[in-house]
């Protein structure tokens, strides 16, 4: 894939807000996770609108991750060797690195998570003040984590051939997310 276009002046670190608009070309490094089909009081409505909700969730998450990568591209170009640290400031979403080529990996990962961390009104969780999907989202976030450290080599994130950064949204409805990026190196 072609390198990202340069963006803005060089900054040693950034605190980046979520994007608000969709993009037509998804980034190479991102395969977000979304959960529009989980059980809830409006399950029938979600089944009918599931495909539309899935597309919206994927576009929103792609935009957020794309904005992060575009924001740091200019900064990355200044490093021959270094480390990029990404920190997600939330407890119901997560960051992870996984295969980014076959979309079945994302679907299988979501299936696995939903089997080992049940949700809905019949789930055994006590923390339900923010909805039946909130406690499962906290557990899933803890499983993957909220931080990544990625080597920088010759101005690019040094990921493996099939690797991509996943921004995983574990709530039924995505909220604004914020990622802090710190770059170190020479």
Describe the protein's architecture and organization.
The structure is a single chain. With 186 residues, the chain is an alpha+beta fold. The protein has one domain (13-185): Sandwich (Jelly Rolls), CATH 2.60.120.460. 32% of the residues lie in helices and 23% in strands. It has three helices and seven strands. It has helices at residues 43-76, 103-116, 134-144; strands at residues 13-16, 81-88, 93-99, 147-153, 156-157, 163-169, 179-185. The strands form two sheets. Strands 1-7-2-4-5 form a five-stranded antiparallel sheet, with helices on one face. The chain has a two-stranded antiparallel sheet with strand order 3-6. A hairpin with a 2-residue loop joins β4 and β5. The protein starts with 12 loop residues before the first strand and ends with a strand. The model is unreliable at 1-59 (pLDDT under 50). It comes from Aegilops tauschii subsp. strangulata (Goatgrass). Residues 10-39 have a biased composition (Low complexity). This is Secondary thiamine-phosphate synthase enzyme. InterPro entries: UPF0047_YjbQ-like, YjbQ-like_sf. Pfam families: YjbQ.
Number of domains: 1
In percent terms, what proportion of residues is strand? 15-25%
CATH homologous superfamily caption: YjbQ-like
CATH architecture: Sandwich
Alpha plus pi helix count: 3
Low-pLDDT ranges:
1-59
Task: Classify the fold: give the CATH topology.
Answer: Jelly Rolls
Number of strands: 7
- The SS-based structural class is alpha+beta
Q: CATH class, please?
A: Mainly Beta
Give the terminus-to-terminus CA distance: 25 Å
Nearest-integer average pLDDT: 73
């Amino acid at each position: 894939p072609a390198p990202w276009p340069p963006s803005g002046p060089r900054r040693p670190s950034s605190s980046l807000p979520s994007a608000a608009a969709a993009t037509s070309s998804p980034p190479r490094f991102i395969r977000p996770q979304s959960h529009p089909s989980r059980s809830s009081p409006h399950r029938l409505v979600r089944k009918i609108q599931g495909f539309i909700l899935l597309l919206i969730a994927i576009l929103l998450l792609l935009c957020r991750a794309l904005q992060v990568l575009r924001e740091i591209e200019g900064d990355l170009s200044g490093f021959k060797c270094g480390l990029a640290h990404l920190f997600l400031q939330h407890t119901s979403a997560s960051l992870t690195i996984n295969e980014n080529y076959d979309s079945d990996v994302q679907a299988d990962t979501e299936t696995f998570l939903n089997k080992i961390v049940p949700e809905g009104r019949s789930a055994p969780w006590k923390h339900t003040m923010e909805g039946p999907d909130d406690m499962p989202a906290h557990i899933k976030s803890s499983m993957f984590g909220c931080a990544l450290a990625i080597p920088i080599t010759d101005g690019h994130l040094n990921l493996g051939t099939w690797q991509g950064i996943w921004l995983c949204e574990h709530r039924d409805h995505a909220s604004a997310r914020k990622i802090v990026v710190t770059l170190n190196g020479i």
